[in-house]
Amino acid sequence: MHAPELLHYYPKFHSMDSYMIRLSSPFTYNHKCYLFANQKLSRHFTSFNFRLQSRKNSTSDAKEFDESAFEAERLRLDAKARESMAQISKTMTETTAEAEADPKAWKWVIRKRIWDLMEAQNIAQNPRPVHHRIPNFVGASSAAKKLSELEAFVMANCVKVNPDSPQKQVRFLTLSDGKKLLTPQPRLRTGFFSILESSMLTPSTINEACTSVGVAKYGRPIGLDEKIKVDVIVIGSVAVDPTTGARLGKGEKPYDFFLF
User: Fold this and answer.
1) CB contact at 8 A, 255 and 249
2) Structural domains of the chain, count
3) Which of 88, 97, 148, 191 is the most exposed place for a label (fewest CB within 10 A)?
């Protein structure tokens, strides 16, 4: 899709359902889709800290996990990333020579329009403000329920879901249905992916396991050399064209790594 088409389409949005999420086409999945070792890619991740790799998922180890320190660091890194994206957004949405010369500047115009509209119409949900995030929104749980009713999801054994707030209910439904949950470590700072299964949890911890802290606390971190069959991939977006499925993220570009 070209920029003019997106810019022409998005002003026509009239309701939350039409511009925030549209489950208009079934997910497709490849039974031969595996996460596999990629030596060329792995060289870019040599600085990752895999200190959680050796931790077992026992109750005693879970108690040793420093939740407050993890959350403080997560919030610090999130704030730093949003500040950086805010500066890029400001540059790209202003009428400057730099913005006009950048072929991707139109994406930031759409992102800002959606974020502003969500806040103005109060359809944004916490964490707020939603600017420079995959925005949480009123109706996210209902959207998750619709997704869980799709045949692809029902038949899936392993579902990859990103760690964003709007997908928390998707992560919960994945675990509640006895499926494997594969989720990226937030900002890839403690590893690449983590796996969670309902057998690793108790009824009292399954809800917590759907949060960023819970993933680090209860999940099993994995590296690039572990083979996993993934049936369905769920990612969040800032804007989606319901006709073509073309999407825009928040502009931080982690999804290329998540979908390698």
Assistant:
1) yes
2) 1
3) 97
